[in-house]
Structure prediction request, 301 residues.
Amino acid sequence: MGKLFHRHFPDWAPLAIRLAIGTVFMAHGWNKLTGPLGTPEGFNIEAWGWPLPVLWAWLVAIVETFGGLCIIVGLFTRIAAFLVACVMVVAIWKVRLTRGFVGGFEFEFTLLMGAMALILGGGGRLSVDRDVLGWGRRSAGVVEAVDAD
Amino acid sequence: MAEARNRDVGLLVLRLTIGLIFLTHGWPKLIGGGATATAGFFGQLGIPLPTIMAWFVTLLEFFGGIALILGLLVPILASLFSIEMLVALLLVHLPNGWYVVGPGQGGVEFNVLLIAGLLTLLLVGAGSPALDEKLAAARGGGPRVGEMEENG
Prediction:
């Protein structure tokens, strides 16, 4: 069955990953946006000692919410995936690395690797990138031509 | 065709990640007094034949994780792991809501993420290189799908 799908629907590869990762990031971003950002009660990175912690908190919340939305609808998929991947690298490095892998940063690592797969593969089927903007369509045309033989 | 190659690398990244996750969760079950603790947990959940199921899940996670990394029996393992994750989602994590980190704990989002990745491996492909593909080629299974696309 895998071969059958790979042969006939190779461009569907990113869809399930896009929906899952996009939903995760939108949920977490929305939760940050609707909470008291930049305060100890809400999302706060003051402890890291970075300059402008409130700005970074807003940036993370916005990247997660709208990056997640973009990934779900497949708009600028690769750029959005790159941005949330950057957030995950910082999250693993700053928050979770000391807690180990299992029960530590495994979730963030999986999100990071899923985002990597999207950066590599692009938006695929049912994405604005492909179906509206027409990106990555030419390769699909070649596959369809092979199938028609 | 660069796009097809990129997609294969993307699927490979998914396969390695998911394999690593299951391997690292099977290992502590295996060395931590075998599957005894897991069997007790399964019994509490009301899973039938808890000892047998606990051993099955422990061995599946550890050796199945290794096999996923190698790219061996990917469709079968992706199906089994999807079922395992669906059971874990429904019986263990659903009462805890959505979040794993941040606002909540022990929610379903990690299960959802793994199931999405597993379904991708099952329905779209295992990526390349994978042992399944090498074995098929060694058996004379003809050119692999990616090569057929490229030749077209």
